[in-house]
Amino acid sequence: MKFNDVEFDTYLKKFPDEKGYFGKYGGAYIAPELKAAMEEITQAYFTICQSRKFIAELRRIRKEFQGRPTPISHLERLSNSLGGVQLYVKREDLNHSGAHKLNHCMGEALLAKYMGKKKVIAETGAGQHGVALATAAAYFGLECDIYMGSVDIKKQAPNVARMKILGANVIEVTHGLATLKEAVDAAFEAYAREYKDAIYCIGSVLGPHPFPMMVRDFQHVVGEEARAQFLEMTGNIPDTVVACVGGGSNSMGMFSGFLNDPVEIIGVEPLGRGPKLGDHAASLKFGTEGIMHGFNSIMLKDENGEPAPVYSVASGLDYPSSGPEHAYLHDLGRVKYDTIDDDEAIDAFFKLARMEGIIPAIESSHAVAYGIKLAKERNHGSVLICLSGRGDKDMDYVLQNYKIPENK
Questions:
Q1: Beta partners for 341?
Q2: What is 68-98+212-401's CATH number, 1.10.443.10, 3.40.50.1100, 2.40.30.100, 3.40.50.150?
Q3: What is the pLDDT of residues 120-163, one digit of tens each?
Q4: Do 32-63+102-210 and 68-98+212-401 have matching folds?
Q5: What is the structure's pLDDT at 408?
Q6: Which of 315, 280, 402 is nearest to 128 (CA)?
Q7: Residues 179, 150: contact at Cβ < 8 Å?
Q8: Quick one: DSSP state of residue 271?
């Protein structure tokens, strides 16, 4: 399929280019002392991703340890309550450790072993990436340091406990807003000190090249599986594919399976409390081009041109930028990016739990809410939603801050 002069049948092979750019977005804007480390990772990845032994080992891990393929579930009761549109979810919440994050963490940890590294370093917001990397580190016998903002540590206590039980060192970040951006800052600083013995396992399709490409490639399994499963279930491809977007790993994995199809693709950003700067984290909706954390993308900026304060009820979405591939697809028009606010996400959280017996992560609830909105607006069709994670980590926070709906 061709879209705005881009051939999508060869897209995944052509993007990013050899310097890590998706159009004008991406690249590697890093300190000189880290250039050799990034080149080492790039060369190791390009070598290992063509290795029959590596591919076979990753496939075995996905099947025997992660429990892949994850299924697609038809949300029949919820769909029927809304009208004629049929809603489906790709169940990444059933991936081992409870989210899509393990897809790239097992690949990154396997790469670390191949490179002879002893430690993995990462940031986390909602804690799902931290749990996934702690799981991968335990599986491969690696040390693991996870940097996490103090705000998110309080909101995501169950995941903090899981990381510690798995043997990870959870390092609290207290400066700034003490959320995801600050955790990334701290993790990069640690990596700059320890790169000879450690590898930085970034948690999304962002950061300097090769991370946006590498994480997308590991997450591509989500879209590959979903497309084949939906065809088998229904005999067609979905009319619309929806996923939440913070940094953008679950969505890029999902979208990559459908870019070459005549499918509407929608990324859902967090509108938080509203459109005022500081009340949301919808960078693609309201941001402008800018560089942070080693890559060029679309970001939210303050009056000085620095990364702006952001907010979302979902700890995994409160980041002031998005992956460079999302920025490229946004400008190209291949993917539509829209928003869901806190109240809509929490309403969807309870609706999916009550009507389908699935408690979603608040991050995923943004995508579910958008699917519900589409179902109310349309008379027919199918919507496939990436349910990126389960809501165990969010239950204490939701119970403390929201009223449980009464049974009707």
A1: 272
A2: 3.40.50.1100
A3: 999 998 889 999 999 999 999 999 999 999 999 998 899 999 99
A4: yes
A5: 62
A6: 315
A7: no
A8: E
Amino acid at 328: Y
Peptide bond preceding 210: is omega within 30 degrees of 0, i.e. cis? Answer: yes
Single-letter amino acid code for the residue at 139: Y
Exposure pattern of 306-345 as b/e (b: 16+ CB <10 Å)? ebbbbbbbbbbbbbbbbbbbbbbbbbeebbebbbbbbebb
Maximum Cα–Cα distance across the chain: 61
What residues does each domain of the chain span?
Answer: 32-63+102-210, 68-98+212-401
Collect all residues with Cβ–Cβ distance below 8 Å to 102 and sequence separation of at least 6: 66, 95, 96, 132, 135, 136
Q: Are 307 and 300 in contact (CB under 8 A)?
A: yes
Angstrom distance (rounded) from CA 101 to CA 121? 15
User: What length does the chain have?
Assistant: 408
Output DSSP code: residue 124: E
Q: Which residue has the tokens 């590596």?
A: 54
Rounded distance, CA 290 to CA 300, Å? 8
Q: What is the rounded CA–CA span in Å between residue 263 and residue 388?
A: 20
103: region left, alpha or beta (phi > 0 left; psi from -120 to 50 alpha): alpha
Please answer whether residues 293 and 247 qualify as being in contact, where contact means their C-beta atoms are separated by less than 8 angstroms: no
CB-based contacts of 368: which residues, under 8 Å, 6+ apart? 89, 348, 349, 351, 352, 360, 385, 387
Catalytically annotated residues: 101, 123, 388
Helix, strand, or coil (residue 259):
coil
State the Cα–Cα distance between residues 156 and 363, nearest whole angstrom. Answer: 13
pLDDT digits (tens, 9 = 90+) for 192-211: 899 999 999 999 999 999 99
Burial 190-205 (b: 16+ CB within 10 A, else e): bbeebbeebbbbbbbb
pLDDT at 4 over 90: no
Q: How are strands ordered across the β-sheet holding 119-124?
A: 169-173, 143-149, 119-124, 198-200
What is the distance between the terminal CA atoms of the chain, rounded to a whole angstrom? Answer: 47
CATH annotation of 32-63+102-210: 3.40.50.1100
